[in-house]
Amino acid sequence: DFTLEDQDGNPVSLSDFKGQKILIWFYPKASTPGWTIEGQELRDEFKNFKEKNTSILGISADSVKAQNNFCTKQAFPFSLLSDPEKKTIRAYEALGIKKMYGREYEGIFRVSYLIDEKGIVEKAYKKVKPKEHAKEVLLDLN
């Protein structure tokens, strides 16, 4: 379980969603191109997720204010959670060494988790493709 602040500064816990599935998607930074595309795809399929009793939560290390700006600008109907200390991000193994242009740095991976109605990880998506992810998860919910 975890409790993090959403884009409005309200506490949100995993346990708040008992009895429904949750897709948790991790992203390194709000309002960047790939993550915006993924969020838009999830937003556009939101009704279909709701019909399958599945909530969506986005998590990054961004501030509550940055999450609010991202959520508002993209009209996301789901919560974006702020984890500046990266405790939850680390617990879900969504943080590690990445390489870009020959240099290594610690970064947040493009991963998502489908959590079942009891709060247990049902499926891990380790290599998320932003334009395909929403439809991929929906197929798994059938």
Q: What portion of the residues fall into strands of 2 or more residues? A: 25-35%
- The arrangement of helices and strands along the chain is EEEHHEHEHEEEEH
| Spans of at least 5 consecutive residues with low confidence | none
**What is the typical, i.e. mean, pLDDT?**
93
Q: CA-to-CA gap between the ends?
A: 26 Å
Q: Looking at the structure, what is the overall shape? A: globular
Structural class: alpha+beta
**Largest β sheet strand count, sense and barrel closure:** 7 strands, mixed
Biggest sheet strand order reads 2-1-5-4-3-8-9
Tally the helices: what do you get? Answer: 5
What value does the Rg take, in angstroms? 14 Å
Helix proportion: 25-40%
* DSSP, total strands: 9
Task: Explain what you see.
The strands form two sheets. The chain has a seven-stranded mixed β-sheet with strand order 2-1-5-4-3-8-9. The protein is built from five helices and nine strands; from the N terminus they run βββααβαβαββββα. The chain is globular and about 45 Å long. The two termini are 26 Å apart. The mean pLDDT is 93. The protein has helices spanning 33-44, 46-51, 64-74, 87-91, 133-140; strands at residues 3-6, 11-13, 21-26, 54-60, 79-82, 95-100, 103-108, 112-115, 121-125. The longest helix is centred in the first third of the chain and has 12 residues, at 33-44. By secondary structure, the protein is an alpha+beta fold.
